Amino acid sequence: MRFPLFPLLSDEDKAETSEGGLDPLGLVQVAEALAVRLVRGVRERMSHPRYLTAMAVAMEVCRRFPEESVARDGISPPWLVFEWIAVEGFVRTADGPDPFKLPGSEKAATAIREHVPLSAARYLKTPNVFGFHGVYRGLARDLDIDNAGRMGEVGYDLLTTWAKQQKLDGFTGTAGGGGAYICEQLYAAVKESVQAGAVARRDGWQYWRFFREHLAPHQIGPAEAKVLRDALVIDSAGLRGSVLQFLVSDKGREVFEKTQSERSFHLALRHSADVNLGILLDAILSYEMFSRICQDAFDDVLVEMTRRNGSKTSPGELGLIASVKKASERVPEMFNELLERLEPFRETARFANTFAPLAERTSAADWVERLLDHHIVTQRKKPPAGKSPWFERFDDGGTIIRPLYRKEQPGRGDDSYLHAYRTRSLYTFARDLRMIPA
After folding, report:
1. Whole-Å CA distances, 256 to 78, 118, 207
2. Is residue 19 within 8 Å of residue 404, measured between CB atoms?
3. H/E element, 392
């Protein structure tokens, strides 16, 4: 079967506001810590491993710049200037809709349309987070492609394999050849753009096509793919290799493609997991059940507040909601077990400090008040200066939902995961690297 192309990298360029529309109960941090343990280096925003090759190419092109070099704008290092040029190259050479969405492409398209050079002011506001270098840098370092800003051993292997396969002799090293000349042209483009503080190449530059012809995310060559496959699977200090190998097995692929459910995939993986992986999967399964129960109760509270259409809702009325009753019973039951399951991963203190108020056995009406208080505290702690709660709270305990957070859809009421654990990213990696049929 053909699997959906997700996740896609997209521009993330939102201004800071006092609104906090994500993670209303502070459940993400523990989930993220567990995901990092499970699939080290991989993030949910990742989609195509060839961005790692693009980073190796950028390091080679930019290696002659002194350390701490920045562009004329005073903030953009050479690797980011290379990224501007690469993104613009992909946009300029697109022939119809791209099968991938490069981070920053919308910004580049706007600059081209307005006939202005791409620069820090016209690119992503936080490229070190949302540009392809920012998204993939952690994995590049974990795989020894990037070693403290210099080419790592795997990075050198990846670059030389790529250059040979692309017939770009001399792109790296001291030997001559067509690749050496192209690398010199790219270096000159980056150097002049650094000096200008903006992309210093225009419509007629013949090397715009270099990026699409040699670094297109869906066109990894066999030898290049093998270098990346081996680097991803060989994970002596973690569990990423075990998860990936099961995912590309007949059983793992069948489960994930059929259900598109990480919970189902983890349950299947649990049967063949070693002790360490099994302990982590048990912790994830338990934490996700806890998260789902809390989130469903909160969602249903919002639905009830919405239904009141501007009238106050009392804790007693919210305590009658079925999911709230369930949460007031199940959360205290699950709490101590979760503390034990999280202990091997040093998440016990964070979990206890964050969710202890919800662990006390009490009536559903009292518990939902604790849930509302917990949400308010969670919002208050969000950077940079706290976020507003999703409802107004009155002295008599009544609440009115704020218009921005009105909700019609109730909680799912099932056992699906609330958070993501990188299986989708690994799946797209495996497809690009020919570990599974396209």
Report:
1. 40, 40, 41
2. yes
3. strand 391-393
What predicted TM-score, i.e. pTM, was given to this entire model?
0.90
**Cα–Cα distance measured from residue 246 to residue 255, given in angstroms and rounded to the nearest whole number:** 10
Residue range 66-100, pLDDT digits in tens: 999 999 999 999 999 999 999 999 999 998 777 67
Residue 250 CB neighbour total at 10 angstroms:
8
In the structure encoding, which two tokens stand for residue 27, read together? 């459940």
Q: Which residues face 146 on adjacent strands?
A: 151
Closest of 207, 271, 234, 258 to residue 61, by C-alpha: 207
> What is the residue whose two structure tokens read 């396969």?
165
Residue 94's identity, in one-letter code, is A
Adjacent-strand bridge partners of 392: 400
Helices (H) and strands (E) in the chain, counts: 19, 4
- For CA atoms 279, 282, 288, 291, the dihedral sign is negative
* Cα 180 from chain centroid (whole Å): 35
CA 102 – CA 347 distance, rounded (Å) = 35
| Eight-class DSSP state of 362 | -
Q: Are 368 and 328 in contact (CB under 8 A)?
A: yes
101 CB-contact burial (10 Å; exposed 0-12 / middle 13-18 / buried 19+): middle
